[in-house]
Specification:
By secondary structure, this protein is mainly alpha-helical. The two termini are 28 Å apart.
Length: 179
């Protein structure tokens, strides 16, 4: 029956299992994509800055933040975010999901806190991988040649370094997507 798409009826709610899964599909996909957006949006710039400033105070602070983000359990960070952004400052809702059909802002507002809480953990790993990959590429001869030819740091980063570290970041993202 499973091969035909019939998963039966839930013993708890007495509803078809396929209906229960379809009800939870939109919030799950929305949270997954918004979490990856937060993680990548923070991780790549942080990893790039840490690599450019390797072995300096900025690098140590950024990597310290990344280690803290990876070491702190997600639920602890979630409680901290809820306490400040939802309870104290009343900027975001404490709980609940609003479908995108009810408006873009209510939809985004309901995803901000959980996406940031989950995204910080994933950000830490991706930032560390970005930094390590970038340091490896920075040591290559063609980067030295590009620097000697007078190319600016932005051009070197976007034209030569990021395209070469993208496959490594993509693998990390694929692993994080599964989580």
């Amino acid at each position: 029956q499973l091969l035909r798409g019939d998963m039966g009826v839930s013993i708890f709610s007495n509803m078809p299992v396929t209906r229960l899964i379809s009800q939870r599909l939109e919030p799950t996909v929305a949270l997954t994509l918004s979490t990856l957006f937060v993680a990548v949006g923070l991780a790549i710039p942080i990893g790039v800055v840490a690599a450019w400033k390797a072995r300096k105070l900025v690098d140590r602070l950024v990597m310290g933040f990344a280690v803290l983000g990876f070491a702190m359990p997600g639920f602890v960070l979630a409680y901290i975010l809820i306490y400040f952004f939802a309870v104290q400052w009343q900027l975001l809702p404490v709980q609940g999901y609003q479908p995108i059909g009810q408006g873009l802002w209510p939809f985004a507002e309901s995803l901000i806190l959980p996406s940031v809480a989950l995204g910080i953990t994933y950000m830490a790993l991706i930032a560390r991988i970005t930094r390590a990959s970038m340091l490896e590429v920075l040591a290559q001869d063609y980067i030295t040649a590009a620097r000697c030819s007078g190319l600016g740091w932005g051009k070197i980063t976007f034209a030569h370094i990021l395209p070469n570290i993208f496959p490594t970041i993509l693998v990390a993202l694929a692993l994080q997507f599964g989580l």
